[in-house]
Amino acid sequence: MPATPFSCSFLVLQPRFNHYINPIFRSLTYQLSSSPFQSNVRLHCALSQAAEAESPTGGRSGALSPGPTVTGEVQKIDVNPPKGTRDFPPEDMRLRNWLFNNFKEVSRLYGFEEIDFPVLESEALFTRKAGEEIKDQLYCFEDRGNRRVALRPELTPSLARLVIQKGKSISLPLKWFTVGQCWRYERMTRGRRREHYQWNMDIIGVPGVMAEAELISSIVTLFKRIGITESDVGFKVSSRKVLQEVLKCYSIPDNMFGKVCVIIDKIEKIPVDEIKKELNAVGLSQEAIEELLLVLSVKSLTELEERLGGSGEAIADLKQLFSLAEKFGYSKWLQFDASVVRGLAYYTGIVFEGFDREGKLRAICGGGRYDHLFSTFGADDIPACGFGFGDAVIVELLREKGLLPELSLQVDNIVCALDEELQGYAAMAANILREKGQSVDLVLESKPLKWVFKRAARTNAERLVLVGNSEWQRGVVGVKVLSTGEQYEVKLDDLK
Amino acid sequence: MPATPFSCSFLVLQPRFNHYINPIFRSLTYQLSSSPFQSNVRLHCALSQAAEAESPTGGRSGALSPGPTVTGEVQKIDVNPPKGTRDFPPEDMRLRNWLFNNFKEVSRLYGFEEIDFPVLESEALFTRKAGEEIKDQLYCFEDRGNRRVALRPELTPSLARLVIQKGKSISLPLKWFTVGQCWRYERMTRGRRREHYQWNMDIIGVPGVMAEAELISSIVTLFKRIGITESDVGFKVSSRKVLQEVLKCYSIPDNMFGKVCVIIDKIEKIPVDEIKKELNAVGLSQEAIEELLLVLSVKSLTELEERLGGSGEAIADLKQLFSLAEKFGYSKWLQFDASVVRGLAYYTGIVFEGFDREGKLRAICGGGRYDHLFSTFGADDIPACGFGFGDAVIVELLREKGLLPELSLQVDNIVCALDEELQGYAAMAANILREKGQSVDLVLESKPLKWVFKRAARTNAERLVLVGNSEWQRGVVGVKVLSTGEQYEVKLDDLK
């Protein structure tokens, strides 16, 4: 792997990604402890444990002979997924599906169409965007054809690429959403993860603030669906045009804009003196820096208007957004905060982030307007805005609030033959039920009824269907409703 | 990237993957031509096209000023996804979702639980299994921590890893499914793709053939759901134990088994003389080779029984499977074919593959029993079987049979304000509908009604909801049912 001659902060690349910085390492629900810092204790499940795993002792096990092993040699594998990544065993997958289904249902309610892109992209797609500083945490490598590729750190550049590729064939505005895995490479010093999933919604082709208002509305809808209220979370909102107006006063050239925003975004993470030093290093005067920092500390729109004057786009956009928020019904969720800049270099207008009101967690989601991203890719600009919403911080918040849903496996039927010769008939009964949309856990071995009941309890089966010899002769099977204990016989044809 | 000192065929690694070999390059539905060979003609959409893309000219566009660009420099990007990978624009995503939802619904009907693993795994997970020859087409690289990692070529090793990790905490049998993206790296000489999605179902802990019968039943159910019949496809079935019994006769050591199977799997792809040479090279005598090839040409179970004798497990397993197929109701889909071996080294018993009866396509799916995979990973063995079913060949088949579903965007409502000041009220109306589960495409700009109707046609909106000033004063909105032209007014509260 060649040395990477890039030296920029992660934050340049992926502010949408910055909930990563939260030391959350555990998988969604499967964890050893409730402390976020203990969560990177891995399940160093000794292989000997697996050796003791329940051994199948079905009726046919006698037929098994110790056949040839696949290779002559045996090597113990690391049973954990690669550092910083997660497995999704059923219990975690249920939670992931629940969350993703909420993302997808909200997107559907807002009339958005689902899209996807390769998790592997050309590295240039991510290094180009933010200028010279970019790749500190890009999960990049060279493929066998000597191409520089990267596991995507975020989804927006791929979206822009696809929009440009589609060209004239699309009608604006586009309303697109995606739920995809994103990657970053970072030293695993604080139990941070190297992958997460992110829900993105983007509106391409709408220049006005109605688009941002609609996006924030969809996030509010998501929060409400999963039980999160305005007393749990809020949105901090500002506009990059505030900075732009200040920079203009000091005749800072346009091409410094992204760089300055990226530096300023670090304001709550590194000492102010460091920020000043960095701003000075890119050419801002002491005076300009002081004015910038002053403006960033403004916490009300009225005060901002006094400072900037009422004629600029920053004030007009923000006023309109707060006015729309009233109509949309989420004004209590919104607050102006000039210090919100977001770390991605490409934002140009309104920026916002969702935060927990207790202030314990990193940003839950974030987004904004990026009207000039397309031109950095060599195409004509199209006004656009969007947000990213990760799967990590929201699960933390739900856990803290006791809002994680109870999700368990649930099958409609467990179907079992009373002796081995009847297994084929049990399969027939199972298929009749499945054709009617009923899920069936078919018992595939000859097992005692005690075992079957235990399994039925584990799978939360609603009914037990028993296939016995004399019953089969009469064309019926036995049914037991497991919640009530009710038992009856039913003709095969009437099984439903 | 270090040179890879591995020299084994792709087929050793991933027979479940071998529909890749089909020269299908196009994305699921988005294509320039119906010929599979023209499909790798990329949409070299000139950036100038994008430049001509419909320019948004909403009421607010006057407020836009050419703000600062993100970076000083502009570089044209490649608008195509990396070689051998796909984007999923909305039309392709709808097809993918339709197919995956069928995979998931069938899995649910069979009582399987969904799982997932990282797309990036330790390289050792894939190189270990099949012995010394493995990595020809593994998409592997070294990460910044000097770890050898790979984009997974198949899902089964990760599943085995997770089962071992879970150890005693799981109750057997496990019935697990997953739909995940798999990767391979190959020179792009024939328009082959480097990624595909694969549906896997696995049963862990059942030693008997009922498990294989259940897996094949689930695939048959999938086929039926998507309109594929027994005259379109069938399953070729054999057992690796057939080969095992022949090898035993010639005292071939057990640790040669996987290697021999992998060579034999190539029988329809390379000349028989090559096969003989390779078998000879791993130490088989001419006599053993001739006997192996003779047995592989057997096309009926009766003939096989005459040749091997009736007492072995191979015959017993196969007979039982065909007998169960009668009960399950899919015996017409099944045929014995001794030449089916499958390319993965880890199979030990029944092996099967789904094929199109016209013989035009590669295997649609494939699977089998792998009772000794766990011990190659250093754990105790657990009997297991499973299959992989890719997203490429099945779509080819559906296309050839004219069975691809018509899937289009469909929103319930398009909601539009009659003038700009009413946009907030339109949002209120939209939210009332969304709270009742109705999807709404909210018009976010001030647009002429002609534009709105055009958009409604494109999104297949069922109703147009118009928010006008005088109506709003009266607490009503106008509704037009777009299919019938019916128009009426409705109170906001009664909107549903």
Automatic annotation (TrEMBL), chains A, B:
It catalyses: tRNA(His) + L-histidine + ATP = L-histidyl-tRNA(His) + AMP + diphosphate + H(+). Keywords: Aminoacyl-tRNA synthetase, ATP-binding, Ligase, Nucleotide-binding, Protein biosynthesis. It comes from the Eukaryota. Residues 84-405 form the Aminoacyl-transfer RNA synthetases class-II family profile domain. One of its GO terms (biological process) is histidyl-tRNA aminoacylation. The keyword Repeat does not apply. GO terms for molecular function: ATP binding; histidine-tRNA ligase activity. Pfam families: HGTP_anticodon (PF03129), tRNA-synt_His (PF13393). L-histidine binds at E154, L155, T156, R184, Q198, D202, R342, Y346, Y347. PROSITE patterns: AA_TRNA_LIGASE_II. Residues 53-88 are annotated as: Disordered. GO terms for cellular component: cytoplasm. This is histidine--tRNA ligase. It comes from Cicer arietinum (Chickpea).
